[in-house]
Amino acid sequence: MKYRCTKPFSVPKFDDAGYEAGKDFTVEKGSIWELSESGDSIIGGEIHLDSDKCGWLEISNEDLTEYFELEQEQEDRNA
Predict the structure, then answer these.
(1) What single string gives the DSSP state of each residue in 9-60?
(2) Distance in angstroms (rounded) separating the CA atoms of residues 47 and 79
(3) For 38-62, how does the pLDDT look when each residue is reduced to its tens digit (9 = 90+)?
């Protein structure tokens, strides 16, 4: 499933090995993220999202609900 960010927010940035990079990453409004169906987690997040342009992100279920909507829902509103 693909999700669209509905409002910007910041999270700590991590490298691919799961080490904190020492800076924050801002998830931009309108960016598209794909839910990882594997259930794998790099840093222990409940939800793992991948983006072709932004890398990866792990967030809580609450953050998914607050900051994202299903991409299909957005397309339906524009139809």
Answers:
(1) EEEEEE-TTS-EEEEEEEEPTT-EEEE-TT---SS--SEEEEETTTEEEEE-
(2) 29
(3) 878 889 899 999 999 989 999 999 9
